[in-house]
Design a protein that fits this description.
Chain lengths: ~270, ~575, ~350
């Protein structure tokens, strides 16, 4: 832990993540306006004391929309990664523990899924189903479990021959106990790292989908769709582009710094001078 | 003082060398770009100093560059179907008739036509000595051939039904084309203004569905296709053998730029001359940017479509006329025009363009009157019995879903409607759907409450396929299930009446009943907004009923303002 | 080795079939097909003509039958013709009886995407490699931290946002680079060299945008690889032998650290042909990404399946080549010491 926070970048990342989370959680309390309150007399106003981040094409307060958008963008990240991790752990554990034909089957499926360019897959599925938050989260989750599977499987493969596992087996521990108590708990760190990085990715993917019109739909606000709404006025209503763009940048940066720092700190192989 | 170990020192030394390596890599990659870029900068600065307001007499030459978001799939309009195809093909091919600046039908390939006494036969007289771009003569044989193709079962066209109503088509001599219908068909002339005549001599041995002609057509109108670079641009150049005379501008270049934001940037950088604008760009961005206004002029004209809120008449409570009218009174249409279109639109009370003969001048849209709305709903049994702010009847709250497709303006309209309905106690939820889903899962099986969509303001008044009770099958256009026997009769009569004045009365009556019945709420008809560089002259302003595009052949670019072009005649 | 190759190639066919099956059924998840596009929701287009179109394209048959028809065509390597683009061939050009050549859609789009991706790969390697090495050599010091933040910013920045800002700055405010498109207007009349420079100028921004996201991954990878290698015994041995520091770093450490990079390249093959949909859409570049996106929106099944199939084939080949290259480059594997 001390080693982890000795890295200033990790501190920065951690601060960013906590701040954004706080803002997202307290959104209903601190948002000055209803994020969906249209005001046709206040269209595209630049930032002022009344509207900290200006207003959008329908007169809605951008700051409030950004706060609620934080909730949506983060939720997409958490749920999508949750799904991907759950699937990944399950499949990776089974593959790594039981090996044999189960392992081959799972790994071949991973190969198949990896052969299709991910973004194409997400695009096709969202375009075919209706673009709603849940569909987006599920689809991102269903297309990012492959990395976690490989990771967990690799950890299991390397751990299962270690002494403590053999000892537990000799003592008669059942498979379940072996998997959960021993193997999984020791593989946690790479899984956590992968999840943290996955959240960052998911936020970026959502903004990309918004650009193509397949992201979170109106009237719900997400950083991706605020940014997309403002793209035709980038020379004029700079606030519609600057704030969501910066928000995405800072959030993704934060998660990446934390995730990477975590990986560094717990990597037994990188010793320092 | 820190002691540095020997290996650390070595590493540090290397650390200083490396940045130099990176810098050299960057320079090697970007220097050539910078050098060539600087050249362009000078050119642009010259353009920024030109004053585009001097008057010049008309001259020939120049290239007009515009942008399209989509690419045509082919240039045979009857098969291709999408708007990008019709737009470009419309510069290459002629039809028998066309609409003039006041939206009256006039001849294009035809110099006159007669309708027989029994109203079932139309005889067209082609202008003499018409030629194709390859100098071959254009005769009634080509017209007959085109008709045969569009009605051929094997041709993959969705537009055949109108032409199949012709029972007999003949070309008695090279300049005469005659069609006979089973019954008088008033929209017939409009259909002949929309059919591009194709060259028999080039297509008679071809399979029209797969022919290479679609990507390399030969037409008879002002322009011919010079080059089509897939995914990038289409270049049209002047056709010396054009049937209608010579256009002034030599070349039309349509660049394919899918993203509207990128298009706007290209317009700002003077890389394209013309672009369609949205209300915000027209009313907010341009007025605040003197640098844009200096070189670019804005044009507005009445648009070609109207937006509406459609009820599913097979679902309660939308079968109750009081409920529909109440919702109509509850919606503030001017607010929608001001908010969504920034005032750049007009309210409509019928499916016709205001100002044209088919639009009934006596009809006015329902005014914004929430009290009247509430009274009507009360009469229909809807009141807030349980005090929760939402109207209810028989214990059920009045709530429904508004569906619309992924169109910013329709979404905004939906939100405004939602708010107004909320004020009188109706809880409406909005759902935005992708088009094919929308069509397949909701419209076709009629699984919807209310939709926000648009129809075009058609030039011919026939509205049979949208409002007649026989058109309610899945896949047909009366998907709101409207059925009114009086309207049915009027629509049928309108199709048979070729006399314009009598026809007008029929459709005025039809519009009146439609407005009363309120199966849809007419919301707005937006303006068509275009930005065109000031170097392009000859544009009619204010726009006539047909819009500014009716005389693009008369537009010209003074040579003083023409762009530097590497290739020139 | 040979047995391994045979086994891998043998596995490719069922994998391909699996991929095509999944793709085909995902496609048919969707409601609607080419006949239900927004353009065809036009009162002038009758339902019966749309039904006729459906029959002509076999869209009214059950999905498994359509899949069978597609497989039959694929067996003869016939990728079919596009539904949406007036029957243009999906993969390669066709010549009709008059000698007119119609270019294939993938044939036109793939080279463009490959060019952008290769250029962007060169950019990434050219920048990420040195950055990773410097990072490793200055582990945990200011230089390392700065580089980490810099590459992470590159990864975190939403691509289309950066693209629009750069387009505005380099294209509108200053006329340094073209804004969108692939070629300038008088391109055909330029000399060979001018044509090349013209295309490069148009691709500068798209390549930069594509590259900046990959920078983080590769430079971190190089850094960690270097670090891992630098702390190994044989490096200490080499140093204690008195070898020149440069030789230690470049001759030994770097070469060994780069080995896994080969696997990375193999894994990024599907990315190579999958052009970035977003970048191509913003910059109006007619590559594979835009082709796929348009095909998806229009429900142009032959094109969608064609692209996914090509992608799968290239991926499988790419993975195989990467494995072979790794095996060859790593003497331990080559000599069969480690499996």
């Amino acid at each position: 832990m001390k080693k982890l926070f000795a890295n200033p970048l990790v501190l920065v990342g951690f601060t960013i993540i906590v701040s954004i989370l706080l803002l997202a959680i307290t959104a209903p309390l601190i948002a000055p306006y209803d994020p969906n309150a249209i005001d046709v007399k206040a269209i595209l106003l630049s930032p002022s004391s009344q509207h900290l981040m200006g207003t959008d094409g329908l007169g809605r307060d951008v700051f409030s929309r950004m706060l609620y958008g934080a909730r949506i963008s983060l939720m997409v990240g958490f749920v999508a990664v949750g799904i991907a991790t759950a699937i990944g752990i399950a499949l990776g554990a089974i593959a790594g523990f039981y090996r044999g034909w189960v392992d081959t089957l799972i790994m071949r499926t991973v190969d198949v899924m990896l052969s299709i360019p991910t973004f194409f897959l997400i695009l096709a599925v969202i375009a075919f189903l209706t673009p709603s938050i849940w569909n987006i989260m599920i689809v991102i989750g269903l297309t990012s479990w492959m990395g976690v599977t490989r990771l967990v499987r690799a950890e299991f493969l390397s751990l299962r021959n270690r002494e403590f596992v053999l000892a537990a087996q000799v003592l008669g521990a059942k498979d379940n106990r072996l998997i959960f108590t021993h193997l999984l708990s020791n593989s946690l760190t790479p899984i956590i790292v992968s999840s943290i990085l996955g959240i960052a990715s998911a936020v970026l993917v959502e903004s990309g989908l918004s650009f193509l019109g397949l992201g979170v739909q109106a009237p719900q606000a997400s950083w991706g769709n605020i940014l997309t709404d403002g793209k035709e006025y980038i020379q004029f209503a700079w606030w519609l582009s600057l704030f969501p763009g910066l928000a995405i940048l800072i959030t993704v940066l934060g998660y990446n710094l934390l995730g990477d720092g975590l990986r560094e700190a717990y990597n037994p192989r990188s010793s320092q001078h | 003082m820190m002691q540095i170990r020997r290996d650390q020192y070595q590493l540090l030394k290397l650390g200083f060398i490396k940045p130099a390596l990176i810098k050299s890599v960057f320079i090697a990659l970007f220097l050539p770009l910078m050098i060539t870029a600087c050249g362009d900068s000078a050119n642009n600065q010259i353009h920024n100093k030109i004053n585009y307001t001097k008057n010049y007499p008309s001259n020939n030459g120049g290239t007009l560059i515009d942008a399209m978001t989509g690419e045509p799939s082919g240039l045979i309009a009857m098969i291709a179907g999408e708007s990008a195809a019709s737009a470009i093909a419309g510069n290459i091919f002629n039809s028998l008739l066309k609409y003039d600046k006041n939206l009256e039908l006039t001849g294009e390939l035809v110099e006159s036509w007669e309708v027989s006494n029994n109203q079932k036969t139309i005889t067209f007289h082609l202008k003499p000595n018409l030629k194709w771009a390859d100098k071959q003569p254009l005769t009634s044989d080509d017209v007959l051939f085109t008709w045969q193709k569009v009605t051929d079962e094997k041709t993959r066209t969705p537009y055949s039904s109108d032409y199949k109503l012709v029972t007999k088509a003949e070309a008695p001599d090279v300049n005469t084309f005659r069609v006979t219908y089973a019954a008088p068909y008033a929209p017939a002339l409009d259909t002949w203004a929309g059919l591009h005549i194709l060259p028999k001599h080039l297509l008679k041995d071809q399979d029209i569905n797969t022919t290479a002609f679609a990507r390399n057509p030969v037409g008879s109108h002002y322009y011919k296709l010079e080059k089509w670079k897939s995914g990038q641009f289409l270049k049209l150049t002047r056709n010396e053998n054009a049937t209608q005379g010579q256009a002034k501008i030599y070349n039309l270049l349509s660049r394919i730029i899918p993203d509207k934001a990128a298009q706007f940037l290209e317009l700002s950088a003077d890389n394209i001359d013309s672009m369609g604008l949205n209300p915000i760009q027209y009313a907010r961005i341009f007025p605040s940017r003197p640098d844009l206004n200096k070189n670019i002029a804005l044009y507005k004209e009445l648009g070609n479509s109207y937006t509406y809120l459609g009820f599913n008449l097979k679902r309660k409570p939308f079968d109750d006329i009081r409920v529909r009218q109440a919702i109509n009174y509850a919606i503030n249409k001017q607010e929608i025009i001001d908010g969504v279109l920034l005032g750049l639109g007009e309210p409509v009370a019928s499916p016709y363009k205001p100002g044209t003969r088919w639009s009934n001048p006596e009809l006015k849209p329902y005014p914004y009157n929430p009290n009247k709305a509430k009274a009507l709903l009360k009469a229909a049994g809807y009141e807030d019995h349980d005090g929760d702010g939402i109207l209810d009847k028989d214990g059920k709250p009045f709530t429904f879903e508004i569906l619309t497709n992924q169109n910013k303006e329709r979404e905004m309209t939906g939100v405004l409607i939602q708010r107004r309905l909320n004020e009188i106690g109706i809880k409406a939820n909005i759902r935005v759907l992708e088009w094919a889903s929308f069509l397949g899962r909701f419209i076709k099986p009629k699984e919807f409450d209310v939709v926000v969509l648009g129809w075009s303001l058609s030039l011919d008044p026939d509205q049979y396929s949208i409002w007649h009770s026989s058109q309610q099958a899945p896949g047909q256009f009366n998907f709101i299930s409207y059925s009114n026997p009086r309207v049915d009769k009027l629509l049928e009569a309108g199709r048979l009446e070729l006399n314009s004045d009598k026809r007008m009365k029929i459709y005025h009556e039809f519009s009146k009943i439609l407005l009363e019945d309120s199966p849809i709420v007419f919301l707005s008809a937006g303006y068509g907004l275009t930005a065109i560089h000031k170097r392009v002259r000859g544009i009619s302003n204010p726009a006539p009923p047909a819009g500014i595009g009716y005389n693009t052949y008369d537009w010209y670019i003074p040579s003083a303002y023409a762009r530097n072009e590497i290739s020139e005649y | 080795m040979f047995k391994y190759l045979v086994k891998r190639i043998f596995w490719m066919l069922p994998l391909l079939i699996g991929i095509s099956l999944i793709s085909f059924f995902i496609m048919h998840l969707a409601p609607g097909d080419i006949t239900t596009s927004e353009a065809s929701f036009n009162p002038k287009a009758s339902e019966e003509s749309r039904q006729k179109l459906r029959e002509l394209y076999s869209l009214d048959k059950p999905v498994i039958v359509q899949y069978g028809l597609w497989m039959k065509r694929m067996a003869t390597l016939d990728f079919g013709t596009s539904f949406a683009s007036h029957q243009r061939p999906v993969l390669w050009q066709t010549k009709d009886k008059d000698g007119n050549i119609t270019l294939g859609m993938i044939q036109e789009a793939l080279p463009i995407t490959l060019l952008i991706n290769v250029l962007s790969l060169i950019l990434i390697i050219g920048v990420a490699l040195p950055l990773g090495v410097i990072s490793a050599l200055n582990q945990n010091q200011l230089t390392d931290r700065c580089i980490t933040v810099f590459v992470f910013i590159g990864f975190a920045i939403p691509g289309f946002w950066l693209a629009l800002m750069l387009m505005y700055w380099t294209g509108v405010q200053h006329a340094w680079l073209p804004i969108s498109g692939l070629q300038s207007i008088g391109h055909e009349n330029m000399s060979w060299l001018a044509q090349a420079i013209d295309v490069l100028r148009h691709l500068a921004l798209p390549v930069f945008i594509s590259g900046i996201t990959g920078l983080a991954g590769i430079s971190l990878f190089v850094r960690n690889g270097m670090l891992e290698v630098l702390h190994q015994d044989y490096i200490t041995t080499a140093r204690s032998k008195g070898l020149n520091e440069n030789r230690v770093i470049y001759g030994h450490a770097l070469r060994n650290a780069l080995l896994p990079l080969i696997t990375i390249f193999g894994l990024s093959i599907p990315g190579l042909i999958g052009g970035s949909v977003i970048a191509e859409s913003i910059f109006a570049i007619p590559g594979m990404g835009k082709l796929f996106y348009d095909a998806v929106l229009m429900r142009d099944f032959p094109v969608i399946m064609g692209i996914l199939t090509i992608g799968a084939v290239l991926t499988l080949i790419g993975n195989l080549l990467a494995d072979i290259a790794y095996a060859w480059a790593d003497p331990r594997v080559r000599r069969g010491v480690v499996q």
